[in-house]
Amino acid sequence: MRTLRGAGIGLIIMIAVALAGCSAPAVESRLDEYRDRAEQIHADMLDHVPGNSAFEDHVTSQPQFGEPHLLGGGQRDTAFWTTWSTVEVTADTMPADAAGAVGASLLDRQWTAEPTVDQGGTMSFITVYRLGEPDGEWIVQISWPADAADRRISLSVQSPLTVRGDTSRTDLAGQQGPYLR
Question: What's the predicted TM-score (pTM) here?
């Protein structure tokens, strides 16, 4: 009888501990902060590109979400902010030169560069820049074509990882509330 009662109490304690672990406090996402910073970095890079006024600079800016956490719920999913755009440079500027000007501005602000890679495809060349900070690593990618007739360069910014969190200023549709998938 004692053994049965002890097993019952042990089972109740295990259930209580398991439930307490699932009710962790809400986590605070830094997506809003990272969005603002990523958009500012992207705008600063665009300032160094001699763009063709016939080609509109359209910057895409949105959160990206990682694998969902089964026990923590959506608010604990990993997330980061990404911006990207493709810009057509002026006729008197080579895309590689424009990419070099943007890269030089990043190096002036303490970013580090990885060697340029020829990856083939429509945007053959890519250089990755990194900025390590206490909250994580920011990543910029600048790519341009090998074809001299192609006047485009592509720019992207990726924030450090954070969590989705339970509240953020706007969702993907620009509405108030949590970010949606």
Answer: 0.75
Unique residue bearing structure tokens 């920011």: 138
Cα(115)–Cα(137) distance, integer angstroms: 18
Identify whether the C-beta of residue 89 lies closer than 8 Å to the C-beta of residue 49. Answer: yes
3-state secondary structure the chain: CHHHHHHHHHHHHHHHHHHHHHCCCCCCCCHHHHHHHHHHHHHHHHCCCCECCCCCCCCEEEEEECCCCCCCCHHHCEEEEEEEEEEEECCCCCHHHHHHHHHHHHHHCCCEECCCEECCCCCCEEEEEEEEECCEEEEEEEEECCCCCCCEEEEEEECCCEECCCCCCECCCCCECCCCC
171: pLDDT confidence band, cut at 50, 70 and 90? Answer: very low
